[in-house]
Amino acid sequence: MRDLHVPPGPGLPEGLVVPAAELVERFSRSPGPGGQSVNTTDSRVELEYDVRSASSLTPAQRARALRRWPGGVVAVAASEHRSQHRNRVAARERLAGLLRDALAPPPPPRRPTRPSRGAKERRLQEKKLRSRTKSLRGRVAE
Description:
Blueprint: E1 4-6, E2 16-18, E3 23-29, E4 43-50, H1 59-68, E5 73-78, H2 84-103, H3 119-141
Antiparallel strand pairs: 1-2, 3-4, 4-5
């Protein structure tokens, strides 16, 4: 749980390791029904990552991330009804998924596909042939 490991994906074949020193984690706990703090409910975890000062990113990855987040700070929060540890794990998983998606290189541009020459005429010919054979089918049966 010290460093954040971004799972490998498109553009990150070996994954990415973000040092724990570059992550800012905040924990808050709301009081339980009796006013006392309860460990297992409503433990909010906020996780921030500053892309501008990240030493773990290459310049190309940093530029892609800054296009996605112009402010440079990526923030996620997990506040489901579960323990602080599980919310911390969930926040880290969310941040890792956001980073993986943002750092993936853009897909190669696709050339618009055009129907080949004469494709429409061939389709119409096949349609006529099918309808002709359907009409003949009934006559042959008689």
